[in-house]
C-alpha cells in the first residue's frame, strides 16, 4: 500500500471511526438516573466494548452501521478505537431510552395530578406542592 493511501485511510478512520458518545452533562444525567434506578439498559456498554475487538463489532452493536463498515475495513487497526465506539454508542442508546422512559413516567404522574385537580380532589396549593415533588423526582440535576 502506498504511503498516500495509508495516510488517507488513517485520516478517514480517525474522523469516522469513533461514535460521538455523550457530553459531560448527559453523562451526569444518565449516572443520576442509574443511581435512582430509573435508567433503561437497551445495550450493555461492556458488551459494546468487547465486541469492538471484532471487525466493526462495537460499532455494529451500537447501531453505528456506517462506522461499522469503516471499522470492518480497517480491522485490526480499528481495535484501537472501536471498543470505545461500542461503549460510547451503547451509553448513548441507553441515555436516549432512559430520557424517553423518564419523560413518559413524569408525564403520566403529572396527568394523574391534573386529573385530581380537575375532579376537585385536591386544591391548587396541593397541586402545586405535588407537582414540585414530581418535577424534583424526575429532573436529573
UniProtKB/TrEMBL annotation:
Lineage: superkingdom: Bacteria
Protein name, per record: Lipoprotein
Organism: Metapseudomonas lalkuanensis
Amino acid at each position: 500500500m502506498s504511503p498516500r493511501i495509508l495516510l488517507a485511510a488513517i485520516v478517514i478512520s480517525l474522523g469516522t471511526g469513533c461514535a460521538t458518545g455523550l457530553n459531560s452533562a448527559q453523562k451526569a444525567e444518565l449516572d443520576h438516573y442509574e443511581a435512582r434506578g430509573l435508567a433503561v439498559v437497551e445495550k450493555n456498554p461492556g458488551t459494546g466494548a468487547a465486541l469492538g475487538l471484532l471487525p466493526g463489532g462495537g460499532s455494529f452493536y451500537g447501531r453505528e452501521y456506517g462506522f461499522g463498515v469503516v471499522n470492518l475495513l480497517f480491522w485490526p487497526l480499528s481495535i484501537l478505537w472501536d471498543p470505545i465506539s461500542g461503549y460510547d454508542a451503547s451509553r448513548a442508546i441507553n441515555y436516549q431510552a432512559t430520557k424517553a422512559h423518564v419523560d413518559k413516567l413524569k408525564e403520566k404522574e403529572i396527568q394523574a395530578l391534573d386529573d385530581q385537580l380537575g375532579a376537585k380532589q385536591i386544591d391548587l396549593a396541593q397541586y402545586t406542592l405535588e407537582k414540585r415533588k414530581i418535577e424534583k423526582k424526575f429532573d436529573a440535576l
